[in-house]
Specification:
Layout lengths: L11 E12 L2 E13 L4 E5 L6 H8 L7 E10 L6 E2 L8 H6 L4 E4 L3 H4 L6 H15 L6 H14 L5 H4 L9 H12 L6 E5 L7 H18 L2 E5 L3 H7 L2 E6 L2 E7 H6 L4 H8 L40 H4 L7 E4 L2 E3 L2 H9 L1
Parallel strand pairs: 3-8, 3-9, 6-7, 7-8
Antiparallel strand pairs: 1-2, 1-4, 4-5, 9-10, 10-12, 11-12
């Protein structure tokens, strides 16, 4: 695990965030009361199965929710100066949000092929980003200077021959090189917060290790706060200081990475950890899996969203009400009746 940062004030504080998509068939509550904090120099890992609302939460921070979705409640407090800005109240195409997006809060998407234009050269897209954000901050950066900065960025992220690769198209690069170029674009304005949304899912294991090492190095050098979104718990064990476990748009458990991996409290967290394959199994046994499947978002279960798949269910109670998040330490909590009862009795 990387060294724990010492900052005392969070850079980003998300409080009771809610995002809904109003469809003809009904309303989808994609994010249903999510709260967490990110500190400077910290890597926050957000884990959960596909469809749990992780990416929608990240897009809400950047005000990139596509219609018919919209933020319906909560706060996204970003500490730009002494007084935080509530990003949830900003207009998505307003001057303030456009000035923050990319310059101070950057995104590494899951699939860089979809992020880069196939008809423009990689370098031109990074150059335009540098010049745009420079103008928004009142600085003047010429094209030659921006090109030199782009070549240096490509070199920093480990792309060989950056002087020639700067003129390549995205489809001329391998998946690993495209991902490195995407990281270079995200870092072009030295953001304070970097959102990495499944950045290693579409690449091979060797390249994945190189990308993770690169992100750790950049985080240590610049004290960049990183939100790392993934379903791969092995990656979280390597990268994160703090972990948030999401299921069906809600936070099931959160805490320091060591506590989540060595003393998980929520049945969903336990089930996720049991489903990790072992490299040295004692016997040839079937890999444990989580029973059932993630329900359709328009057919959410009543009560605790995980109770239909839970091994530790208390049927009459778990199906009747949603458990509150019970705090069991600073920035530690679990949303489960069973463990809340045990804590209250203690």
């Amino acid at each position: 695990m990387p060294p724990i940062p010492t900052a005392t004030e969070p850079l980003l504080r998300v409080r009771d965030l809610r995002v809904a998509f109003r469809l003809d068939e009904g309303t989808v509550r994609a994010v249903d009361g999510v709260s967490f904090e990110v500190f400077p120099g910290q890597v926050l890992g957000i884990v959960g199965e596909s469809g749990c609302g992780k990416s929608v939460t990240m897009r809400a921070i950047l005000q990139l929710i596509d219609p018919p979705g919209r933020i319906t409640g909560g706060e996204i407090l970003y500490r730009r100066d002494a007084d935080p800005i509530d990003l949830a109240q900003l207009h998505p195409r307003g001057r303030v949000m456009r000035g923050l997006r990319g310059a101070e809060i950057a995104l590494i998407p899951q699939e860089p092929m979809a992020a880069f234009s196939p008809v423009h050269r990689i370098g031109e897209q990074i150059i335009e980003a540098i010049m745009l954000h420079a103008r928004q901050s009142g600085r003047l950066v010429g094209r030659d200077e921006a090109r030199a900065m782009t070549i240096e960025l490509l070199r920093d992220v480990g792309i060989s021959s950056p002087g020639s690769r700067v003129d390549a198209y995205s489809w001329q690069l391998s998946g690993g090189l495209r991902q490195r170029a995407m990281i270079a674009m995200a870092l072009s304005c030295r953001p304070r917060l970097l959102i990495a949304d499944e950045p290693t899912t579409a690449i091979d294991v060797t390249t994945q290790a190189q990308i993770l090492a690169l992100l750790r190095e950049l985080q240590n050098q610049h004290q960049t706060a990183i939100i790392f979104v993934t379903h791969d718990l092995g990656v979280i064990a390597q990268m994160a200081h703090h972990v948030v476990v999401m299921y069906l748009g809600r936070v099931m458990e959160e805490g320091p990475v060591d506590d989540i991996f060595h003393a998980p409290r929520h049945p969903y967290t336990k089930a996720l950890l049991r489903s990790i394959p072992s490299l040295h199994p004692d016997t040839r046994t079937a890999l444990p899996v989580i029973a059932g499947a993630l329900p359709h978002p328009l057919n959410r279960p009543s009560g605790c969203p995980f109770h239909p798949r839970c091994d530790e269910i208390m049927p009459q109670r778990c199906a009747a009400a949603v458990p509150a998040m019970h705090a069991n330490g600073p920035r530690q909590g679990v949303s489960c009746f069973r463990f809340s009862d045990l804590a209250e009795r203690a």
